[in-house]
Design brief:
alpha+beta, 5 domains, five-stranded antiparallel sheet, five-stranded mixed sheet, 10 helices, 39% strand
Length: 614
């Protein structure tokens, strides 16, 4: 090799060595935070370890909030519910608000607020960044440490069984002559929030697709509340709505718990596609916001009247009471998913039954439930004044009814509200106030700035004292005060109080006594027309087919034995100055046969009542 060649080879070696040195220098400056992370001076080690422990504690605290608050650390804005849909956008659970994943807003719109896993990661990143510089180093400051922390930037990845945290924050630990600079901190925290969240999503999707909570609730309602049925009796069937609602609330609470327990048959085990390592609980409490409505009802009484004892129906040969009640039930359920390590992720959902049926499944975009299109087009201004009978302005809730649709307008302030109404010809302005009868007034909203004056009758509490043929009566009776728009019925003697407002009433009293009228088993022949056989059937010819219908033995245990009707105009002064309404009703003979029972109903129509206010 020539001398020039040797020199060129030496130059090449020097260039390579220089490149290696430069690269090593670059790598040192790029990764020095990571490299020094494992090489902290002994004197710095306690403060550095404390910082890592503080970072882990913040992650664990934030994850705990995510699990207990339905995937949120920073709660979405609160939306207030209404009387009909009592769901605020957050459920108060053990003193803390938990955002609903599904609910119905106060104006009847279905809404979903399910966080994504990426959003949960963002919440946790923000939480770490806001708290990391609040780590307590006071004990180390007293030992002479100087700790400088610059702006943090956290990056979080939620895995099935762990959380990876990468915190970029230029941090300098100093003690004496020792200086330790760290730019990057990495932590892996053991947590199953990822797999718990995935299971929660499966439960939520299963409910939205199958509506299994609503279907279970309908079954419970039909078991524990009167919905449809027929009973063989000649006296009305009466239920106290408050007792029905209480029984239904207790039944819903207990059955939801049964669904989430390890005890029970397949009926209580919805086929939700989650791991067998996860247990799902469904919680409900009667103390949580809920509404139960039923129709038809008279205040808090459900009444089903008998068929077969009226004049002209004796041909039936028996009496029966058919009933059909329609319910709207709305209540929350808290869903909890727990793994074998005892970690729990929870979120609430609203359960909605409308007209005895489960709600419609929610689509990808929120749909409205029961919100009329009319109510979304309020563009005619009107002013409503609400008075009592003495022309005093009173506060009331105002709504507007057009055909079969009703729109909430608002609440009066000092008896007056000025607001936009939807356009409608011959609609009704409706006002409701506590302690007053509901009032309504025909009003067309076809021109701007109109004034409506509504007058409400004050209600007065009165005690009912019933007599039959001049003697105090203590057995069963049904007393009704029938008034257009404001009828009331009580079951005597369980109920003796009633609140009435001024107006014209038809007072009705039905007195019932025990009986043992027995109808033996009988057979009736029933005939129907059916298509004729053969060619005749093709041309529409029919033939009669008869069959026997067996009517089983029946015992009527309660029969009409007194009462009557009376028209009466109650003035406000009379109501205000009285505490008791005394009603004296004529008695009727206790019937011992169906014919006598039917005759009592005929006599009842002609009986008058003696009414006095004391």
């Amino acid at each position: 090799m020539t001398e020039n060649g040797q020199k060129r080879g030496q130059v090449t070696v020097f260039i390579i060595i220089a490149l290696v040195i430069v690269a090593a220098g670059i790598l040192y400056f790029v990764f020095r935070g990571t490299l020094t992370e494992k090489q902290s001076p002994t004197s710095i080690e306690p403060a550095y370890t404390n910082f890592l422990s503080c970072l882990e504690d913040n992650v664990i605290t934030g994850v705990g909030m995510l699990k207990s608050q339905a995937g949120y650390i920073y709660l979405p804005e609160m939306e207030i519910g209404s009387h009909y849909y009592p769901f605020n956008s957050q459920l108060g659970f053990l003193g803390s608000p938990v955002p609903y994943w599904y609910y119905v807003s106060g104006n009847g719109l279905q809404k979903s607020q399910v966080p994504t896993k990426a959003e949960m990661e963002k919440h946790l990143e923000r939480f770490i960044e806001e708290r990391i510089r609040d780590c307590n180093f006071q004990a180390y400051y007293e030992q002479g440490f100087v700790i400088t922390m610059n702006e943090p930037n956290a990056d979080v990845a939620i895995n099935d069984e762990s959380i990876d945290v990468n915190l970029q924050m230029d941090t300098i630990f100093e003690k004496g002559y020792d200086v330790f600079n760290v730019k990057n901190f990495k932590q892996e925290v053991v947590s199953s929030i990822g797999s718990l969240y995935d299971s929660a999503i499966k439960v939520y999707d299963y409910e939205q697709e199958k509506l299994f909570l609503e279907n279970y609730s309908v079954d419970v309602m039909r078991l524990y509340a009167p919905v449809d049925g027929i009973e063989i009796t000649c006296s009305p069937k009466i239920w106290n709505a408050d007792e029905v609602f209480d029984n239904l609330q207790i039944a819903l609470e207990q059955n939801m718990i049964a669904m989430g327990s390890n005890i029970g048959d397949g009926y209580y085990k919805p086929d939700i596609p989650i791991s067998s390592d996860m247990q799902v609980r469904f919680l409900n409490s009667r103390t949580w916001p809920n509404t139960i409505e039923v129709a038809p009802s008279d205040e808090n009484i459900l009444i089903a009247n008998p068929v077969g004892n009226q004049q002209g129906l004796g041909i039936l040969g028996f009496c029966y009471v058919p009933y059909h009640f329609v319910y709207n039930v709305r209540y929350p359920v808290m869903v909890q998913i727990e793994n074998k390590r005892g970690e729990v992720f929870q979120f609430p959902m609203a359960v909605i039954i409308e007209g005895n049926m489960p709600r419609k499944a929610m689509s990808a975009t929120a749909n409205s439930i029961g919100i009329p299109e009319l109510c979304s087009n309020k563009n005619v201004q009107s002013e409503v004044h609400v008075y009592d009978s003495r022309l005093n302005l009173i506060n009331a809730d105002v709504s507007y009814r057009c055909l079969s649709e009703s729109c909430n307008i608002g609440t009066t302030s000092n008896g007056i509200i000025k607001a936009n109404f939807p356009q409608c010809v011959n609609g009704y302005v409706v006002a409701k106030a506590k302690g007053y009868e509901d009032g309504e007034l025909l009003h067309s909203t076809t021109s701007n700035v109109s004034v409506v004056n509504l007058f409400l009758n004050k209600k007065y509490d009165l005690n009912i004292q019933l007599k039959v043929d001049g003697k105090d009566y203590v057995s069963n009776a049904l007393i009704s005060f029938v008034k257009e728009g404001n009828s009331r019925t009580i079951v005597y003697p369980e109920q003796k109080d009633i609140d009435l407002g001024q107006g014209q009433y038809e007072i009705q009293v039905y007195v019932y006594k025990n009986s043992s009228i027995q109808f033996p088993e009988s057979t009736k022949k029933e005939c129907i027309e059916i298509p004729a056989s053969g060619i005749g059937g093709l041309f529409g010819f029919t033939t009669e087919k008869c069959f026997d219908v067996k009517i089983p033995t029946q015992i009527i245990s309660s029969v009409l034995a007194g009462g009557g009707k009376q028209n009466y105009y109650a003035t406000e002064s009379e109501l205000a100055s009285s505490k008791t309404i005394e009603i004296d009703a004529p008695g009727l003979p206790v019937p011992t046969s169906l014919e006598q029972l039917q005759n009592n109903f005929i006599l009842f129509e002609d009986n008058n009542l003696d009414i006095s206010f004391n």
